[in-house]
Specification:
With about 220 residues, the chain is mainly alpha-helical. It is built from ten helices and no strands. Helix 1 packs across helix 6 and helix 5 packs across helix 6. The protein binds heme C (2 copies).
Length: about 220
């Protein structure tokens, strides 16, 4: 009996920690889907919208803490700009998320502020789980490669005017196998004894990202006539 109650005690004491990790991981997912656009993946304000618009209000949830209690945070998330302390850029979530989800997000923000490192690991785990698609490959290609290789991969990007010897490759005509593509994209031209004007990307992209860029390159190929 004593053994049994000891086990029960351990169970009861460890339960809250376990349930809060589960719930924080679940809210990490919601945060990345709904909030990261403006608040950044880690809540530090580096979202796509604030970066694009210069007069955007500060969305860093760590440096800016107008609301600190769970109740107040829940209110801001629920009502957004309905709350007069808050700018019109913060949307209300009462019609998109359930009460418990909003409560869990308030706890997520409190944990982000007090135990930032733990939350960062949850964010990193969640991002690593995400499946990348050819559309992600296309977005990466257009933002990092098209300047040289052209929007359609024909080798006529804007930089092709100055990079001429050799010029950026025409990727529509490329016949290289995937394994070689991996190496030249990761290690750059120099990594395969070719021109250093083709930069190495391994410090910027994960293997997965290079993989979806290659999938996209395959869709650009035009069969030889
Ligand atoms: C369209 C952009 C946008 C989205 C999406 C967005 N927010 Fe905001 N949020 C803002 C802006 C801008 C502010 C700053 C408002 C101010 O300071 O007046 C803000 C402020 C906040 C605050 C107040 C911080 C404080 O201490 O006062 C909280 C909490 C918050 N957001 C949580 C969230 C959550 C949770 C989500 C996702 C469910 C989310 N936001 C989605 C733009 C956004
Ligand atoms: C600053 C200009 C520049 C940028 C940016 C650039 N490249 Fe290149 N790339 C080149 C040049 C120049 C070559 C030709 C190298 C040679 O022939 O020695 C090349 C060659 C290649 C090749 C070899 C193709 C073949 O059939 O020989 C591939 C694949 C490639 N680049 C993919 C990419 C991808 C993917 C990106 C973006 C992640 C990218 N490049 C960004 C300049 C660039």
């Amino acid at each position: 009996m004593r053994y049994f109650s000891a086990v029960l005690c351990v169970f009861l004491f460890s339960f809250p920690a376990w349930s809060s990790e589960t719930s924080l991981r679940a809210s990490t997912k919601i945060f990345l889907e709904r909030c990261a656009l403006c608040h950044g993946d880690d809540g530090m304000g580096g979202g796509l919208l604030p970066i694009r618009l210069s007069s955007y209000p500060i969305t860093n949830l760590l440096s800016q803490q107008k609301n600190t209690t769970k109740k107040d945070l829940q209110m801001v998330i629920t009502k957004g700009f309905g709350n007069d302390k808050i700018s019109g850029f913060m949307p209300p979530w009462e019609n998109e998320l359930s009460g418990p989800e909003i409560g869990a997000l308030a706890e997520f923000i409190m944990a982000l502020r007090t135990d930032t490192e733990t939350i960062r690991t949850y964010v990193a785990d969640e991002l690593a789980k995400r499946k990348l698609t050819v559309a992600d490959g296309q977005a990466l290609f257009q933002s990092r490669c098209s300047l040289c290789h052209g929007k359609t991969g024909d080798g006529k990007g804007r930089m092709a005017r100055v990079i001429t010897n050799p010029p950026p490759a025409n990727l529509q005509k490329s016949l290289l196998p995937e394994s070689y593509l991996h190496t030249i994209i990761a290690e750059g031209g120099q990594g395969v004894g070719r021109s250093g004007q083709m930069p190495p990307w391994k410090d910027q992209f994960s293997k997965k990202e290079i993989g979806v860029i290659i999938n996209y390159l395959m869709t650009l190929r035009v069969p030889a006539k």
